[in-house]
Amino acid sequence: MSRSTSLAKSHKVSHVRNKGRFRFRFGIRLKLLALSIFLFAIPWLGYQYVWELESYLRIGQEQTMVGTARAVATALHERPTLFDTQSAYLTDVKPGTDLYAHKIHDPIRLDGKLDDWLDYQHLSLEYGPAHLLDYLNDSDDYQRSSLHFRHMVGQFGEYLYAMFEVTDENVLLRAKNSLRVDRNDYLQIAMTGPDGSFKRYVVAPQEAGWVNAYLLSESVDSMRPVSLETQIQGRWLNTANGYNIELRFPLAMMSSKIAFAITDVDDPQTRQIRYRIGTANPNKSDALGTVLVPSPEIENIIKGLKYSNARVWVIDKHKRVLARSGGIHKSVGLSSSAYSSNGDQQASWWQSIEQEWLLPLYYQILTKPPADFIDDLQDAYALQGQDIDQALTGTSASLWRLSPDNKAVILSAAHPIFIDERVMGAVVVEQTTNGIRTLRNLALEKLFHVILAVMGLGTLALFLFASRISFRIRKLRNQTEAAIDQHGKIIGTIPSATAGDEIGDLANTFNIVLGKLGQYNAYLQNMSARLSHELRTPVAIVKSSLENLQLSQQTDEDAQYIERAQLGIKRLSTILNNMSEATRLEQAVQSNEREEFTVNALLSGYVEGYRMTYASHKFVYTNEAGDVLLLGSSDLFGQMLDKIIANALEFSPEHSLIAIKLRQHASKHLLTIENDGPPLPNDMEGKLFDSMVSVRPEHATSQPHLGLGLFIAKAIAQFHGGDIQIENRTLETGEHLGVRVSLLF
C-alpha cells in the first residue's frame, strides 16, 4: 500500500469520526432543546389564545350591550307621552331649583326624625346664602348659622315625599290665638296643578307635631289662609339646632312645577321676617322650578330587563334619570354549576383533587370576579360620561370604566331616543365583565389542566428519553471496559449497533477503533518475537566474524575495537534473550494447565535456595497462614519469586535483610517481600509493573535492563488470580524504611 493511499484512508476515517462526534454532540442537544421549546410553547400559546378569546368576548359583549340599548330605545321612540312636558322638555336645568324625586324603596314614616332618609342623605341638597330670595331687604347681614337647611324629595307609589332639616338658632312657632301664618317660622309650598293653576300652601303649626298645610289665597301679595289642605300632611319636630319637617302629598295634586321656601322669624315681639331661603320664589308662578318624577310608564316597559344581569337607565336630554331597572351586582358570572357537576352526585376522585388541590393553586394567580364592588351610580339621579354625551348628539356609543374600588370593569352602552326627529333622551345599559372573567377563568383552569398534563407527560417522556440515552451510554461504557482489561490489552470487541442515531454511530466508531487497536496491539506483542528471531542470525554472523578476527594477527588498536564490538554483541544477545523470555512466558501463561500446589512449601524451598545462592544477603521467611493451596503453576509462581527477589537483591545493600511473609488477609492470602532498598519515585509506584519501565539510572549496571522483570511478575500474578503492588515503607514521621512488594491472592 502506498503512503498516499494510507493517508487518504486515515483522513477519511478521521472525517467520519469527526462527523459522528458532531452528530453526537449536537443531535441530542437539539432534540432536548426542541422538546423543551415544544413544552413551553404549548402553555404560552394557550395563554395567549385565552387572552385573545377574552378580547373577542369583550367586543361581543360590547356589541350585545349596544344592541340591547338600541332595542329598548326602539320601544321608546316617538312616544312623547312618556316624557314629562314640563321637565324633560326644559331648555336648561338649574340644580337646586329643578328637583329630582328620587326613587324611595320603602314608604317614609312621618315622624320628623329623618331616620328613613339615611340611605339617601348623600343625595340631599344644601340651601344657604346662594338661595336667599331676592326680594328680602335685610339679607346683607345674613349669617349661615341663623338659617340654612338640607332638603330632598322622593317618590314612593303615588306620593311625593319631602324632607327639610332646618338649622335655625331661634325657632318661633305661630301663637295659639293668632290667625296669621306669616308672623312665625313657616314652610311655603307653591306648585302648579294638573290643570295648570297656580297654588300656594303654607305649613305654620302652633306647636310641634302632626301638621297639615293651609291653602293660601290666590293673590300673591296675601298670606291669608283660605282652607286646610289635608292631602298635604306631615310632621314638624323641633331639634337642638332647629327643626325637621317631613311631608307627603299625592303626585296627582301637581304637574311638574314646584317650589319650597323656609321663612325665618326670630323676634317674638316684632314678628318681622328676617330671612327667606327657598328652592325658587314661591310667589311667582313663572319662577317655579320643576321636579322630575321617575316615569312609572317607562319603568313598566323596562321592568322585564331586570332579569338580564344588566342595569338599564332611561334618561332625559338633561341626563336626569327617568327610569331604571335591574342591577350590575347580579352579573357576577356563571353559577357554581359551571364549576362542578350536579351537587346531588358524589364528587369523583378527579373532582376532589381539582377542588382541594388544583383550583386553590390556580387561584393564587387567577382572581375570582368580586360581587362586593362599590357601585357609585346605585342611587344616581343624573348620569355623566362620554358615551351619554355622544348618545345625546344622536349616535350610539359605549364606554369602559372601572368601579371606584378598581375591583370590577363596567361596560356601558348608550343609544339615543328620538321624538319628532329630536333627541329627547337616551337608554343606557350597564353590565360588568364578571361573566367574561368567569369564562376566562374556566378556560384558564382547563388550560392549566392541559399544561400540567403536558408538562407531566413531557417530563416523563424526557425522563424516559434521558434514561434510555443514559442506559445506552452506560451499556456502551461497560462494553468498552469489558473489551479492554486493566492492563490495556484488547480482549474483546463491541457488538455492532443497529440503531441509526448518534449513540449507534458512536458504538460503531468504538468498534472500529477497538478493532484497529487490537490489530496494533497484536502487532506490538508479536514484534519482540519477530525481532528476536530476525536478529539472531545477523548477531551470530557478527559474533563469529569477531571471533575469527580475534584469532588473526592484529594491532593493539584493532584488538581494542574488537573487544568493544564483542561487548556490544553480548549486550544485544542479552536483550534478545530477555525479549524472547517475555514472549515465551506470555505464551506459557496462556497454554499452561493449572494444578493445585502448596504455596508455603514452595516458598520454604525457594527461600532456602536463595540463602545458599545469595550469601551476601539475609533471607527470613515467616508463615502465619499455615498450609495454603493455590490452583495454578508452581513453576510460574517460582519464576515470579525469582523476578521479585532479583529486583530486591539489585536495589538493596549487601548484608541487608529481605523478609518474606505469608499471612491471612480477610478471605484471601497476602504475600509480602520487603527489602531495605532506596525509595521509589512518587510518580512511579503504579507504573513499575508496566512493560519497558525501569527506574535504574542510565549506565548504572553493565547488564541491559528493559523493565520486563516486574512486568513478567505481574503477568504471572494475574494468571494466579492475584493482584501485585509495590510501595515504599515509611514510618509515621515520614522516615523511609525500604520497599515492599505485596501479592494478594
TrEMBL record:
Q: What Pfam families is this protein classified in?
A: HATPase_c (PF02518), HisKA (PF00512)
Domain annotation Histidine kinase: ranges:
530-745
Principal place where this protein is found? membrane
Output this protein's name.
Answer: histidine kinase
Listed NCBIfam families? marine_sort_HK
Mark the transmembrane ranges.
447-467
- Its EC number(s): 2.7.13.3
Q: Which GO terms describe its molecular function?
A: phosphorelay sensor kinase activity
Alphabetic keyword roster? Kinase, Membrane, Phosphoprotein, Transferase, Transmembrane, Transmembrane helix, Two-component regulatory system
Instruction: Give every HAMP domain span.
Output: 467-522
Q: State the organism named in the record.
A: Paraglaciecola mesophila KMM 241
Which chemical reaction does it catalyze? ATP + protein L-histidine = ADP + protein N-phospho-L-histidine
Q: What class of enzyme is it?
A: transferase
* GO CC, one annotated term: membrane
Annotated localization: Membrane
